[in-house]
Amino acid sequence: MLMIVYHHYYVHSGWVFPNEFSGKAAFIIIMGSMGRIGVILFVLITGYFYTQQELKPKKILALSNAARWYAILSLIIVIFFTDTKLELTAQEIVPALFPVGFGYYWFLIPYVILLLLNPFIRNYLVSVDRKKKLLATLLLIIVLHIPGLIGIITQTEGYYVPSSLLTFFYFVLIGDLLKN
Question: Are 37 and 3 in contact (CB under 8 A)?
Fold first, then answer.
């Protein structure tokens, strides 16, 4: 969780980025990458315990309520503790009140979909042997990332980048594979 907090501080703090390489620049770059690592670890841990979970609407509601609390707290902090003069509109307030339904946080929608798909994915994870799961996971990763790799190497614009949901899905598969 601290990794994700460091990342958010890096992105939203207004740190001044030095042009030359220094210890400070290295520290800032490392802190900035911590959020991605933290999210990957979180989804891997979810995958590790995925077959032990059952779909419970109560869990999704609790997640939505937690996100709502942080969104509202963030709005309050911005309104009362910054020099920013905000004129809040319904388009800014409504997503904060319903963060899952409006995709207020990029992480929530794919995570909630993974929770909703739990009965189906769990059946697959329980019924398929480790070797088949490993092959399916490797194939999924290769197929999803070859276009992006080719696009980066050839410096071609508009190449395919897998969605967060697909990325989370194969991290759940990897997390499950780590269990055995």
Answer: yes
